[in-house]
Amino acid sequence: MIGIPALLGNPPAFSETVPVARPTMPSGPDVLERIGATLRSGQVTNGAQVRAFEEETAEFLNVPHVVAVSSCTTGLLLLLRCLGLRGKVVVPSFTFMATGHAVVWNGMELVFADSDPLTCTLDPESVAAVAPGAAAILAVHTFGAPCDTERLQAVANDSGSVLLFDAAHGFGGRYPDGTMIGSKGLAEVFSLSPTKTLSAGEGGLISTGDASLARDLRTARVYGNAGGYDATMVGLSGRLPEMAAILGRAALPMLPSWLSRRRELAARYQRNLSGIPGLGFQSIMTGAESSVKDFTVRVDPEFGLERDELATALAAENVETRPYFDPPLHRQAVYRNVPVVTSLAGTDRLSATSLTLPMHSLMQSSLVDRICAVIHDIHRHAERIAGVLRAADPAPQPVTAVSSPERTGIA
Ligand SMILES: *Cc1c(COP(=O)(O)O)cnc(C)c1O
After folding, report:
1. Would the CB of 71 count as within 6 Å of ligand 1?
2. Closest ligand 1 atom, residue 191 Cα
3. Once rounded to an integer, what is the mean pLDDT over residues 292-305?
4. What's residue 403's pLDDT?
């Protein structure tokens, strides 16, 4: 088995596909019992489960208010709407498309700032260069690693903008001061979709210390109807269903053990792969803890293969990977008309070299070891693999060869 990569003629290292992500959904008798009880009660929305889930997550995050919504995207949309912001919003281009969409759905303008190739999060200096005059900075805790909130908050204060977080990846992560992701800026918005650390099937959570913002968000998620059928704002149908809250509540007590497993697996990947030239790892701020939503490596030229070639070689071994986030927002069809006003060199480098490897909360350490052994073998045979791939197809390998969105749902 060990030795010759599949692209050079061996059978694949894995007989079944190793998925890049896999949702961890409690499905024990207690969960099924609660679902049954909710179905029989007829109260399938706007009920006690969502209220309890909001209280329990607020306690977990140690924040004053959590508002549950139908998705992170909905949460971001409603947050910008409730704040009544106009004009420009600074976002990383190295992020998932929903970060940008929320801005544009609100009729606001995107301003892309660069991301640091080491941290994969917004570079505060790049933000400082474009933030003057912007209404908001919407930062992302990329792959679950908290961004540099202190410096971003200083930039926001200087430029008179509010600081918000797309914390889709971040549930369970910690800032260097020991507080949880969810506690900084004016508000942070989490995703509960299947590939995130805490999932409710689908859904989103907005955490904030601002009581009146929380109240407005609760109105906004029910069409802007504060109760009298005399809408006070243009809201959305953006509720989290009771069924999803049941799933989220069942997952929450398990999360600390899942997070520590993810952190162990990430450390194990990094230990196993650290000897390979040309592989780089995301740096996490000292004292901070990533939620490890994803384990992502940078594939630099010294590895001997391009990122897409390594992905193709791993796909041949039945190891699924994702080139998160390629293309970055400023190169996506819908955003190509957005003026690029500062260098996005770090973003372009990240997009061209990042590769997300399999990670999920119940993954065995031995699986990480086997994937790492395969990557070692691929590296050892890089020259011959490059020869095979470049002869077969001189154009870059299509990244879709390694993605199967239908398998895990979404991003
Ligand atoms: C997954 C994701 C979202 C969207 O989350 P939904 O709950 O599916 O709307 C937004 N931003 C980032 C960075 C994401 O990865």
Report:
1. yes
2. 7
3. 98
4. 41
